[in-house]
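> tool_call: predict_assembly(chains=two)
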Amino acid sequence: MGSSNYEPTNKAVKWFEDRLPILGLIHGTLGAGYKAPRNLNYWWNFGSLAGFMLVVQILTGIILVMHYTPHVDLAFRAVEHIMRDVNYGWLVRYTHANGASMFFVIVYIHILRGMYFGSYKSPREVLWFLGLVIYLLMMATGFMGYVLPWGQMSFWGATVITNLFGAFDFYEGMGESILHLLWGGFSVDNPTLQRFFSLHYLLPFVIVGVVILHIWALHLPGSNNPLGIDAKGPGDKIPFHPYYTAKDAFGLSFFILIFAVFIFYLPNIMGHPDNYIEANPMVTPSHIVPEWYYLPFYTILKAVPDKLLGVIAMFASILIFFVLPWLDGSKIRSAKFRPTTAFFFWLFLANTIYLGYLGTKLPDEIMIDMAGGIDALTLGRIGTALYFAYFFLIVPWVSRRETTKPVPTSIAQSVLDARKEG
Amino acid sequence: MTTNDQVEQDGEVTRRNFLYVASGVVGTVGMTAAAWPLVDQMNPSADVLALASVEVDLSSISEGQTVKILWRGKPVFIRHRTADEIAKAVADNTSDLKDPQDDELRAERPEWLIMVGVCTHLGCVPLDQRGDFNGWFCPCHGSHYDISGRIRKGPAPRNLEVPKYTFLNDTTVSIG
């Protein structure tokens, strides 16, 4: 990670440091040894916030496991036991459940920050890949975690999502074999619950490992910045500690306020009431919806009439982010100097949010009451087309053609100019 | 080493080449064999496989009634069809079907329609006597099945599955 000129003054510390230079590693990664661009704004707060949420989730998760039993006959009851009987169990569980949502909000903002300011562009492509790997691991972890309370949404969500893998039915019985392997039976049942529990406990630690690689890959080129230009001289950079540790801490306390509002005042707003009904394989809830953070992809799945192609489109809608560094051919990173790119970025964001909203609707629900009624399915198809057009048409074309604004010569210069104007 | 490299350049296979490849192959086969139990443990276990069949008493199911029973963790629909429904199902054999199958092949005895109650799209339980064809309707993603359990409209790719079953006598059927 960060190379460091860390020189401990205390003799005992120096003795230790000579034998295992871990303090120097921390100093160079998150301390004064790491020099970050001086112009980072609050959008750069979300990396450390995501790190904070990962720690919160692991900590509360470990505590929940002390009181939970992964068995179809006991799981639902165990969650109620945590809520009613365990001291502060309600607090730990609500923190964990809402924490998952908060983690996703933060990571989405973190990804969108990277998109807007061109943080995925050279030389940070591998950093971007590792971020996407973390995101995919989070999706898997979040999904399996939602199954553990063994409510109706847990069970039917698990049924629908695992059945997606049955679409890979390339020879007679292949889809079924995949499903039996995933379930450990002929349907989502006790073996499924137990393996999901095992993996739900494992994956966060895998995420920790990839986060370390992510930070390592960040510290080779250093952080991107709102201007998207390379930080050059010492005048462009300031030490991470105390400047950004303080800024991140301030942002963190503000975030915790919002987090607390959800935990203490709106603890169930992100959940679905049907998940307080115990899982029943004989009755499907009238309307299955996944957790909000999967909704845009769920709409894309529903938009395609063919099962296999729908599943492929859904996975493609996420995997497409891996090739974004090459779809974008612009020499300039930040959308600050790319007005057309910025416009389409906001359009993309609005469209994706709208796809998410459509994900909560039934396919034949009438959304716009005109021309005989336009249903959610039709709008979902338009939104899906727009989503893929953004990556395959708009980004490649606009990034190579648009007239860009003049880019400042250095970060220091731009800061000085801003001061003059101010 | 030099002599060996020279021999390899001549395209001759040395004893050392053979040992490299042979040990590599043995190692790979060994690793695969060791990994297999770690994968196969995920497949259905013996006790799950043992719950293969159930017997159902049909005498209490009246005409026009659907009964749901649990088989292998999944619901099975047993519908006692009326004469009208059978006629409708047979007439629809010639309709535009996504997964064409005659009604006669779907019900050994036309009055007893026995199907796995799992939507072939993504595994939800369809609701009976609903949908555009007055058969089954899946609330998850809007698949419509007819009174023979055939897919007629919506995203599901196949008809509702007919499990293996045998009539032990006129009023008892064994599923599985």
